[in-house]
Amino acid sequence: MAKSKKESEIKIVIKEAELQNLLPPGYKLEINEVARIVNVLSTDPPHIIAQQQFTKSEWSVLISLLTFYPHYAPYESLLTHFTSFSLAESRKRIQEAQLIGSKALRQELKPVYRAISGIRSKLNNLTPFLKIALIPDAGYAITTSIHNRNP
Protein backbone atom coordinates (compact mmCIF):
# COMPACT_ATOMS: atom_id res chain seq x y z
CA MET A 1 0.00 0.00 0.00
CA ALA A 2 1.45 3.37 -1.02
CA LYS A 3 1.88 6.02 1.62
CA SER A 4 -0.20 9.12 1.25
CA LYS A 5 1.43 12.51 0.99
CA LYS A 6 2.18 13.85 4.45
CA GLU A 7 1.32 17.39 5.41
CA SER A 8 4.94 18.06 6.44
CA GLU A 9 6.19 17.06 2.98
CA ILE A 10 4.07 19.65 1.21
CA LYS A 11 4.21 22.50 3.70
CA ILE A 12 4.63 25.77 1.85
CA VAL A 13 7.03 28.33 3.23
CA ILE A 14 7.51 31.36 1.01
CA LYS A 15 10.17 33.84 2.06
CA GLU A 16 8.36 37.01 0.98
CA ALA A 17 11.26 39.32 1.84
CA GLU A 18 13.54 37.37 -0.53
CA LEU A 19 10.91 37.46 -3.26
CA GLN A 20 11.14 41.24 -3.33
CA ASN A 21 14.59 40.79 -4.91
CA LEU A 22 12.78 39.58 -8.03
CA LEU A 23 11.46 43.08 -8.74
CA PRO A 24 13.13 46.49 -8.94
CA PRO A 25 12.87 48.97 -6.05
CA GLY A 26 9.44 50.57 -5.85
CA TYR A 27 7.61 47.37 -6.76
CA LYS A 28 6.24 44.57 -4.62
CA LEU A 29 5.08 41.04 -5.30
CA GLU A 30 1.84 40.11 -3.55
CA ILE A 31 0.61 36.51 -3.39
CA ASN A 32 -3.02 35.60 -2.71
CA GLU A 33 -3.02 31.83 -2.12
CA VAL A 34 -6.78 31.56 -1.66
CA ALA A 35 -7.61 33.08 -5.06
CA ARG A 36 -4.36 31.83 -6.72
CA ILE A 37 -3.53 35.39 -7.77
CA VAL A 38 -0.19 37.16 -8.04
CA ASN A 39 -0.14 40.96 -8.05
CA VAL A 40 2.69 43.28 -8.95
CA LEU A 41 2.24 46.45 -6.90
CA SER A 42 3.80 49.87 -7.13
CA THR A 43 4.74 51.08 -3.67
CA ASP A 44 4.72 54.82 -4.45
CA PRO A 45 1.84 55.52 -4.76
CA PRO A 46 0.47 52.10 -3.76
CA HIS A 47 -1.52 50.53 -6.58
CA ILE A 48 -1.78 47.34 -8.63
CA ILE A 49 0.36 47.39 -11.76
CA ALA A 50 -0.56 43.90 -13.00
CA GLN A 51 -2.49 40.86 -11.82
CA GLN A 52 -2.66 37.24 -12.96
CA GLN A 53 -4.75 34.32 -11.78
CA PHE A 54 -3.32 30.82 -12.12
CA THR A 55 -4.93 27.42 -12.64
CA LYS A 56 -4.62 24.87 -9.82
CA SER A 57 -1.89 23.04 -11.74
CA GLU A 58 0.06 26.20 -12.47
CA TRP A 59 -0.36 27.38 -8.89
CA SER A 60 1.05 24.15 -7.45
CA VAL A 61 4.19 24.45 -9.55
CA LEU A 62 4.52 28.23 -9.05
CA ILE A 63 4.28 27.88 -5.26
CA SER A 64 6.97 25.22 -5.35
CA LEU A 65 9.23 27.52 -7.41
CA LEU A 66 8.61 30.42 -5.01
CA THR A 67 9.21 28.19 -1.99
CA PHE A 68 12.65 27.21 -3.27
CA TYR A 69 13.65 30.73 -4.38
CA PRO A 70 16.48 31.80 -4.62
CA HIS A 71 17.45 28.18 -5.33
CA TYR A 72 16.05 25.84 -7.95
CA ALA A 73 13.10 23.51 -7.35
CA PRO A 74 14.13 19.91 -8.11
CA TYR A 75 11.99 17.88 -10.50
CA GLU A 76 10.84 15.59 -7.69
CA SER A 77 9.56 18.54 -5.61
CA LEU A 78 7.68 19.96 -8.58
CA LEU A 79 6.13 16.56 -9.28
CA THR A 80 5.21 16.12 -5.60
CA HIS A 81 3.44 19.49 -5.43
CA PHE A 82 1.62 18.68 -8.65
CA THR A 83 0.54 15.09 -7.92
CA SER A 84 -0.53 12.90 -5.03
CA PHE A 85 2.93 11.25 -4.91
CA SER A 86 5.08 11.54 -1.80
CA LEU A 87 8.49 13.16 -2.21
CA ALA A 88 10.14 9.71 -2.03
CA GLU A 89 7.78 8.32 -4.69
CA SER A 90 8.41 11.31 -6.95
CA ARG A 91 12.18 10.99 -6.48
CA LYS A 92 12.03 7.29 -7.38
CA ARG A 93 9.91 7.96 -10.49
CA ILE A 94 12.27 10.71 -11.67
CA GLN A 95 15.37 8.55 -11.08
CA GLU A 96 13.84 5.60 -12.93
CA ALA A 97 12.82 7.83 -15.84
CA GLN A 98 16.33 9.36 -16.01
CA LEU A 99 17.83 5.86 -16.19
CA ILE A 100 15.53 4.90 -19.07
CA GLY A 101 16.27 8.08 -21.02
CA SER A 102 15.18 11.59 -21.89
CA LYS A 103 11.93 10.46 -23.54
CA ALA A 104 10.83 8.68 -20.35
CA LEU A 105 11.75 11.73 -18.26
CA ARG A 106 9.78 14.03 -20.58
CA GLN A 107 6.78 11.71 -20.27
CA GLU A 108 7.02 11.62 -16.45
CA LEU A 109 7.29 15.42 -16.25
CA LYS A 110 4.72 16.20 -18.96
CA PRO A 111 2.16 17.72 -16.54
CA VAL A 112 4.90 19.85 -14.96
CA TYR A 113 6.05 21.04 -18.42
CA ARG A 114 2.48 22.08 -19.27
CA ALA A 115 2.16 24.03 -16.03
CA ILE A 116 5.57 25.70 -16.57
CA SER A 117 4.45 26.82 -20.03
CA GLY A 118 1.33 28.47 -18.62
CA ILE A 119 3.27 30.06 -15.76
CA ARG A 120 5.86 31.53 -18.15
CA SER A 121 3.12 33.14 -20.21
CA LYS A 122 1.36 34.60 -17.17
CA LEU A 123 4.59 35.84 -15.58
CA ASN A 124 5.41 37.59 -18.85
CA ASN A 125 2.01 39.32 -18.65
CA LEU A 126 2.73 40.36 -15.05
CA THR A 127 6.16 41.86 -15.58
CA PRO A 128 9.15 41.43 -17.88
CA PHE A 129 11.37 40.87 -14.84
CA LEU A 130 10.09 37.43 -13.78
CA LYS A 131 11.39 34.37 -15.65
CA ILE A 132 11.56 30.61 -15.19
CA ALA A 133 14.91 29.02 -15.93
CA LEU A 134 15.52 25.37 -16.70
CA ILE A 135 18.29 23.77 -14.65
CA PRO A 136 19.20 20.86 -16.98
CA ASP A 137 18.69 17.40 -15.48
CA ALA A 138 17.71 18.95 -12.13
CA GLY A 139 14.65 21.23 -12.11
CA TYR A 140 13.50 24.82 -12.59
CA ALA A 141 14.12 28.13 -10.86
CA ILE A 142 12.25 31.40 -10.79
CA THR A 143 14.67 34.17 -11.72
CA THR A 144 14.75 37.85 -12.49
CA SER A 145 16.03 39.78 -15.46
CA ILE A 146 16.95 42.74 -13.24
CA HIS A 147 20.61 43.50 -13.79
CA ASN A 148 22.85 44.20 -10.84
CA ARG A 149 22.97 47.98 -10.60
CA ASN A 150 25.96 48.02 -8.26
CA PRO A 151 29.30 48.56 -10.08
Structure description:
This protein has 151 residues and is α+β, with helices and mostly antiparallel strands. It has a single domain (14-143), classed as Winged helix-like DNA-binding domain superfamily/Winged helix DNA-binding domain (Arc Repressor Mutant, subunit A). The protein is 42% helix and 23% strand. It is built from six helices and six strands. The strands form two sheets. A three-stranded antiparallel β-sheet has the order 1-2-3, with helices on one face. Strand 2 and strand 3 (46-53) form a beta hairpin. The longest helix has 17 residues, at 110-126. The chain is elongated.
Query: What is the number of E strands?
Result: 6
CATH topology: Arc Repressor Mutant, subunit A
Order of helices and strands: HEEEHEHHHHEE
**Main beta sheet:** 3 strands, antiparallel
Low-confidence stretches: 1-12
What's the tally of helices?
6
Terminal CA distance = 58 Å
Report a brief summary of the structure.
The protein is an alpha+beta fold and 151 residues long. Helix content is 42%, strand content 23%.
Task: Tag the structure with descriptive keywords.
151 residues; Arc Repressor Mutant, subunit A; 6 helices; disordered N terminus
Describe the protein's topology.
Layout: H1 16-19, E1 27-32, E2 37-43, E3 46-53, H2 56-68, E4 73-74, H3 75-82, H4 87-100, H5 102-108, H6 110-126, E5 130-135, E6 139-144
Antiparallel strand pairs: 1-2, 2-3, 4-6, 5-6
